[in-house]
Amino acid sequence: MQYFARASYCIAQPPKSGIVPENYFSCPACTAPQLAGFQIHTVAYFRPLNVLAYVGTVPLQSGTGIVIAFRGTVPSSLKNWAVDINFLTKPQAGAPGQVHGGFLQSWLSLRAPILAAIKDITSNTPIKHIFYTGHSLGAALATVAAAEITQAYGQLGRSVYTFGSPRVGTAPWAAWFNGRVPDNWRYVHYSDLVTSVPPTWTGFVHVGREVWLPDVGAQPTKICNRATADGKEDTSCSYSLGIWKKLSVMDRIDDHGLYLGLTFGCGGARFQALTAQQKAQARHDTIEFVAALSGVRVNENETTEQIIEKLQHQPKPVF
């Protein structure tokens, strides 16, 4: 699924949402051999929020599956930050608890063309399974989308694979989601800062089983338990890393952008190959994203160090 999530960053933005020709899925990341057999159906794009997802079919050992992949935050677009700062929680139809208002708003902006694509595909092809995936903001949108779509297509198998996901909803919502989508795998690359926000003191709790990917040369991959019904997360995986330990390894900022050997984003360059200026910008973008998801407003001209200092001096701990 990581290859589908990565391709979402590179697929072209259509003038409007809708069915696209098969050759629309032809970007370098889209033509990876791991995606052989995938047939694109629809690209959903909402320009005001600059959010995008695509839907298509993939052959399975028995039958056909649907893949829905959501693009993550595009650092160069301030339209995404406006969503991330929309920190108020809101109810999702048919579910208890609350979800992040910005994530819900983004999903609702893509909802109609995605649901239309699923309806069209299932009307013409016997479907066994629906897969949801995404990285960063896209991971959160994949989770919110799965929560709704599984209510309408509960007879189909469903799996969620996310990479570098922030927390999406409150404890009651997360517990409900875990019961509805038990095959839910949330990958965290060692000290990925984005997976620590929104802060737990806001009531947000992670969903699914965490697959904690090791630091280079460190502990093996570890699978942790889901959060308990009262919202307590497993402290033996990434939650065991305090925020300041994470910030002290900011020289390894590629934790958020690098998963399972793949660099997320259309450029595809390994972080280690970037120039010092590019590394500094990547560090700034990630800290800015973390601040936005923590409800900490950032001025356009603030430096990385100034944003970190803001995070350190919040009335309540950010993480």
Q: What does the model show?
A:
Helices cover 31% and strands 21% of the residues. The strands form four sheets. The chain has a nine-stranded mixed beta sheet. The two termini are 28 Å apart. The chain is globular. The chain is an alpha/beta fold and 319 residues long. It has one domain (2-312): Alpha/Beta hydrolase fold, catalytic domain (Rossmann fold). The model has no long low-confidence stretch (mean pLDDT 84).
List the helices and strands and how they pair.
Blueprint: H1 2-7, E1 18-19, E2 39-46, E3 51-59, E4 64-70, H2 78-85, E5 89-90, E6 99-100, H3 101-124, E7 127-135, H4 137-152, E8 157-163, E9 169-170, H5 171-180, E10 184-189, E11 204-205, E12 209-213, E13 222-224, H6 243-247, H7 254-257, E14 258-259, E15 262-263, H8 276-293, H9 304-312
Parallel strand pairs: 4-7, 7-8, 8-10, 10-12
Antiparallel strand pairs: 1-2, 2-3, 3-4, 5-6, 9-11, 12-13, 14-15
Give a nutshell description of this structure.
This protein is an alpha/beta fold and 319 residues long. Helices cover 31% and strands 21% of the residues.
Estimate the strand proportion: 15-25%
One letter per element, helices H and strands E, the order comes to HEEEEHEEHEHEEHEEEEHHEEHH
Approximate shape: globular
- Taking Cα atoms only, what radius of gyration do you get, to the nearest Å? 18 Å
Low-confidence stretches: none
Largest sheet: 9 strands, mixed
By helix and strand content, what is the structural category?
A: alpha/beta
Please report the number of helical segments.
9
Terminal Cα span = 28 Å
